[in-house]
Amino acid sequence: MSTVDEYDAIARTVQHYIDGAKSGQGDDMRPAFHESATIFGYAGPDLMAGPIEELFAFNDENGPAEDIHARIASIDLAETVATVRLEIDNWTGDRYTDLFTLLKVDGTWKIINKVFHMHG
User: What is the DSSP string of 32-94?
Assistant: First the structure.
């Protein structure tokens, strides 16, 4: 794959996450993540830390965010690893900055860690 193709593949992986936020279905974002992925960040005063299943459960409870606006702010690529910064407005009224670490596993990009900041 060319470098441009890799960037496109990474963006497609992140799009699964965005699509899941829009639908409010954790299973729609699941393809973006490695099964052992983790999540860390503060939702208000509460620390969310642990397996990515916590994100899927939150998303199912939170419901659809049909008016979400998400933009990939940056992708940094080093052969089989990458980082992505995603800016999100209006995830059911909230604004987030997500930082993802991705790994190319068996030829497919997977998010292995999500760290987020919920803006006040």
Answer: GEEEEEEEEEEETTEEEEEETHHHHHHHHHH---TT-EEEEEEEEEETTEEEEEEEEEEETTE
Q: Any idea what the CATH number is for the domain that residue 66 is in? A: 3.10.450.50
Percent share of the chain, pLDDT over 70: 100
**How many structural domains does the chain have?**
1
Asked whether the predicted pLDDT for residue 43 surpasses 90, the reply is no
The boundaries of the domain holding residue 99 are 3-118
Contact by Cβ (8 Å): 2, 73: no
Q: What is the 3-state secondary structure (H, E, C) of 44-60?
A: CCEEEEEECHHHHHHHH
Residues 6+ positions from 20 with CB-CB distance below 8 Å:
26, 27, 28, 29, 30, 32, 59
Residues paired with 98 in a beta bridge: 86, 116
